[in-house]
Amino acid sequence: MSIEFKKNRAIFRDEVSVEEAEGLLEWLQNRPSAKADLSALSHLHTANLQVLMIAKTIISSWPKDAELRAWVEPLLKSGE
Amino acid sequence: MNSLPTNPLLEQFLSESRDLLESTGKKLMQLEEVPNDQDILNELFRCVHTLKGNSGLFTFPEMTRVLHAGEDLLGMVRSGNLTYSRELADRLLDAMDFVGVLCSEIETTEKIDASRASESQQMTEALRMLMPSLTSSDDAPMAAGPNGRVANDPIRTVDDPGSGPPSLRSIPDAVRIAALEQCRQGDQLYWIAYRPQRECFFHGDDPLNSARQTPGLMWGRVLAPEPLPSLTEFDTYSCLIGFDLLADAPREELDQHYRYLPDQVEITTVRPMWLVSGQGVEDGPSKASSAANRTRSLSDADEDAFNKILAAQRQILLLEDRPAWHAGRLKSVADVLTNLSQAVGETSTRTDILAAFEDASATDHNTLLLAWLDGHKNMQSNAGLQRLAGANDEIAIAYAEAAADTGSSLEIDAGKVAADDGLKFCRRAEDTGNVPRSLKVDQAKIDRLMNLIGELLVEKNALPYLAQRAEVQFGNRELSREIRGQYSVINRIADEMQDAIMQVRMMAVSFVFQRFPRLVRDISRKLGKEVQLVLEGEQTEADKNIIESLADPLIHIVRNSLDHGLEMPEVRRARGKPETGRLTIRAAQQADRVVIEIIDDGNGIDPAIIKRKAYEKGLIDEATLERIGDQEAVNLIFAAGLSTAEVVSDLSGRGVGMDVVRSAVEKINGTVEIESEVGKGTSIRISLPLSMAVTQVMVIEFDGQLFGVPMDNVVETVRVPRSEIRAIKQSLTAVLRGRIVPLKALNTLLGIPSIPTPNANDELAILLVQTGSEVFGLMVDGFKETIGLIQKPLGGFLSGLSAYSGSALMGDGSVLMILNIREIA
Questions:
Q1: Contact call for residues B606 and B683 (beta carbons, < 8 A)
Q2: Which string of b and e fits B773-790 if b means at least 16 CB within 10 Å?
Q3: Residue of B nearest to A20 (CA)
C-alpha cells in the first residue's frame, strides 16, 4: 500500500497505482473532512487524482516533487 | 530494395498481405460493377478480416487501426446497413494503398515510422465518417471510439482545439514569453490536446503519467470537467480529465510517445503568432506588448513575406480547375487573408473578406476575392505594415514569422483539404517500387513444367527398347551399349528433375505452424486465459497448394478454440481441470494424406446451443431442429453465418470462420470432421491429400490389360483359394479375417468378356478396396507394383466414362486407365 490511512489523514507515498483509487474513494466518502499528505508522493495514477478532485480533499502538504506539485496544485487547491 | 526482414514470420506476413491487398483491390473494383454481389462482398470482408487479424500479430497499431475501420465498414455493407458506393470504394482503396505503403515500410525498416500514426488516424476517421451513426449498432463496437466519445465528453466541448488555433491564453506569461523566444530562434513548438478516453484506465493507460512523460514538455495543465460529478455518482474507473500540453520535442518523438493513442491526442504546430498574446490582439495588453513603446521601421524581409503570401493567394484564386475541395481552397484563402489583415492590425477588413468569400463560394467566381486582394495589396503592404512598424520588436518579428509561416504552410493546408476529401493521390502502393525477393511463379507454369517432366520420364523409357533393337535387329552391340549408357545418364537427370519439381511444390507444415506460438500467446493474453500450445509433426510435408490453403482455416480454428473453447482459469479450476488449457496442433502423414488435428481440452460444443443458434439465424427450420442428432448439430458450426459468440471481438464472432474452414478444406479435396464432448473438449480433424499432383496407384492386371486403382481405395491384397469362395444367392463372398466380404469380378463391372484366372495353386487374386465405409473384394488376375503418377483427366469423348477417373502414361509408353472405384462399385 502506498497510501497509509490514519484516523483522518491519508499519507501518499512514492507511486500510487490505479488499484488504490477505489479504496481511497470509499475512505474519503466516510470522512468528508479528511486531509491528504502528498509530500512523499512521486506519482499518482490519474484515477486517484480524480478522486481527490471530486472529494475536494484538503491537502495538508503538497508534493516535494515540484513538477508533480505544479500539475496537481491548481486542481486540488479548491479544497483548502 | 536495401534490406529484407530477417524474421520469416514477418516475411510471410508481408507476402500474404500483398496477396490479400491485391485481391482486396480487385474485389473492390469488381463490386463497383456488381454492387450487390454477396459472394464478392463476403470474400472481400474475409480478406480484410484476415489482413487485420494478421497485422494484430505484430505491433503495427497504425495498420491494424485502419484495417479494423475497413472491416467494420465492410461489415455494415455486408449486413445491409450501408450501401456500397463509389466513394466508399475510393476510401477503402486508399486505405488499402496506405496499408501497402506501410507494408513496404515494414519490409525495408521492419517497423512503421511513428509519424504514420496521424495519417493512420486520418485514414481511420475518413473510413468511419462513412458509417451511419453507430450508437446502437453492435456490429462495430470500436466505431463508437473517437466520434462517439466526443459527443458526451464535457471537456471536449469546453475547449475544442480541433477547429482552429488552440487557445494558448491559459499559458502563464513566463512560459509564453520563453516559448516565443524559442520560436524566434527557429524551434518548432507543439500544442498537444490530450483527451483520454473514458475507459482508458482499463487499457492500462495512466493519462497523467503519459502527460508528465511527454517529451520536451514545457508546460501543461489538467482540464477538469464542469461541473464535477458528485462523490456518490462518480465512477472511479472512468477518466474525466483531459490535458493541454506545450512541448518542444521533435514531432516524431511526440508521435512516438502517443503512438497508441492517436485518436485521443491532437498535436498542433504552434505558430509564433499565437504566442504573442494568447488567442488574439484584442486580448488585452500582455507583458510583451505593454513593455514595448519603441518604434521601428520595417525590414525588407517582412515586406517580402507579405507580398509572397499575397501572391500565393492570388495564384490559388486564379487556378482554373474546380476539384472537389474547391470550397475548402476558397476558405483557406479567405482564412489566410483574414489572418493577414488581423496580423497587420486591420481587423475591420474581416467582414469584407467574409463577404467576398461568401460571394465566391455561392457564385463559383473568385472575382470579388481577387478584387479585394488587388485593392488591398498596396494598402496592406504599406499602411498595414506601417501600423505594424509601431509595434514592438518582439511582436513585429513574431507577426512576420507568423505570416511567413502561414504562407509556407499553405501547401500543407491545401494538401490537408485534399486529404479530407478522401483522396490520397500521391500515395499509390505501386509507386514505392519494391521488388519482393521470392520469385512468384504462376501455378500454371509449374504445372506445365511438371507435365513436361512427366512426359520426359515416359519418353526416356523408350531408349532401352531402342538399345534392344540396335542389338537384336541391327546386330550392333556397340551402339546398343552406348544408348544404354546415355539412357542411364538421362534417367538420372530426369529423376532428379522430377524430384526437384516435387520439392518446389513440397513444403513442411511448419510454414503454417510457426505462426501459432505467437498467435496463441497474444490471443490468450488478450483473453486472460492460460494456454499451453503443443505442436507436433511440424516436419510433415505436403504440396505447396495444400499447405497454403491450410493456413486460413487453421487460424480460424485456433482462434475459435481459444475464444470459445478454452475456459477462463477460474472456470477450469472449478471444473477440476488444470488451470492451463492445452491446445494441441498435430500433423501427421497417414498413407498419402496429411492429417491435421486441432485438439483443445476446453468447453466442448453444446449441441443444444448450436441448434438454437442455427434456428434463430434461420439456418435450419423447426422440423430439422427437432430431428437432428447431437453430432449433426455440432456439424452445424460449419454452416455459413453461424456464430455462437455473444460479442463481436476482433477474434471471432462475426460469423465467418467455420464455414470458411470447410469450404477451404473441401476445395483441396480434404475433409474436416469435428468431435466434441461438452465439458471435455473439441477435436477438429482435417484430412488432406499429400499432393494434388501425384496420385499413388496400384497397378492390377486383368485379361492382359493393366488398370490402376488409387491407393486411397486399396485396403489389402489377398489370394483366396477358389474353394473358399461361396455364392450367396447371386453374389460371391469370401470370409476374410473373420469377416464376410462381398466379391465382385472386374469383368462383370467393366463388361469384359473374360473371367478371373486363378494362379497355379488355384487361388484367385482379390484386391480389397473400400469406398466410404463399404469394403468389397475386386477379383482380378494379378497385382503389379504401386506407382506414383500424374493423373490426367479423360478428355473429349472419353470424359463420359464414369468408370475411370483418369488416365496416365506408363514408362513404356502404354496408357494406364485409373479405375473410379466409387463409380463401379
A1: no
A2: eebbbbbbbebeeebbbb
A3: B236
Cα nearest neighbour of B217 on chain A: A67
Domains: count for chain B? 6
Q: Which residues are CB-contacts of B454 (< 8 A; sequence separation ≥ 6)?
A: B498, B789, B790, B809
Residue B267 C-alpha cell reads as 498535436
In whole angstroms, give the CA distance from residue B74 to residue B131. 10
Q: Supply the pLDDT for residue B423.
A: 43
Place of cell 509449374: B446
Residues sharing a CB contact under 8 Å with residue B765, sequence separation 6 or more, in sequence order: B700, B717, B718, B719, B756, B759, B779, B780, B781, B782, B783
Residue A71 has which C-alpha cell?
Answer: 500539475
Q: Give the Cα separation of B707 and B700 in Å (integer).
A: 5
> Tens of pLDDT along B544-574?
778 887 888 888 888 888 888 888 888 888 8
Contact B269, B188 (CB under 8 A): yes
Q: Report chain B residues whose CB lies below 8 A from the CB of A54.
A: 228-231, 234
Of the candidates A18, A55, A75, the beta carbon closest to that of B201 is on A18
Is the pTM for the entire model greater than 0.90? Answer: no
Backbone angles phi, psi at B490, to 5 degrees: -60, -40
Q: Could you tell me which residue, B126 or B299, shows the higher pLDDT?
A: B126
Q: Among B106, B141, B176, identify where a domain stops.
A: B141
CB contact under 8 A, B209 and A54: no
What are the strands, taking DSSP E only, across B593-713?
Answer: 593-600, 671-677, 681-689, 694-702, 705-710
Quick one: CA dihedral B786, B787, B788, B790, positive or negative?
A: negative
Tell me which residue range forms the domain holding B35.
8-141
Does B427 reside within a domain?
A: no
Query: To the nearest whole angstrom, how far is the Cα of A52 from the nearest Cα of chain B?
Result: 10
The answer to whether A46 contacts B239, with C-beta atoms less than 8 Å apart, is: yes
The pLDDT, as a whole number, for residue B254 is: 83
**Quick one: B550 and B479 in the same domain?**
no
Contact (CB<8Å) B207/A46: yes
ipTM of this model?
0.89
Domain at A3-79: CATH architecture: 2-Layer Sandwich (3.30)
Cell of B403: 505570416
Lowest pLDDT segment from A4-18, B259-273, B339-353:
B339-353
Q: How far apart are CA B406 and CA B393, in angstroms?
A: 20
Residues of chain B with C-beta less than 8 angstroms from the C-beta of A50: 234, 236, 239-241
CATH of the domain at B106: 1.20.120.160
pLDDT digits (tens, 9 = 90+) for B41-64: 888 888 888 888 888 777 788 888
Q: State which residue of chain B sits closest to A17, comparing Cα positions.
A: B206
Please answer yes or no on whether B208 and A49 come within 8 Å at the CB atom.
Answer: yes
Q: What distance lies between CA B563 and its chain's CA centroid?
A: 19
Residue B335 CA to residue B338 CA, distance in Å, equals 5
Please tell me which of the candidates A21, A22, A71 has its beta carbon nearest to residue B208: A71
Residue A10 pairs with which residues in a beta bridge? A5, A36
- Give the pLDDT of residue A55: 81
Using CA coordinates, name the residue in chain A closest to B211: A71
- B679 and B718 assigned to the same domain: no
Q: Which of A39-53, B84-98, B395-409 is the most confident on average? A: A39-53
Confidence at residue B489, expressed as pLDDT on a 0 to 100 scale: 92
Q: What is the domain partition of chain A in residue ranges?
A: 3-79
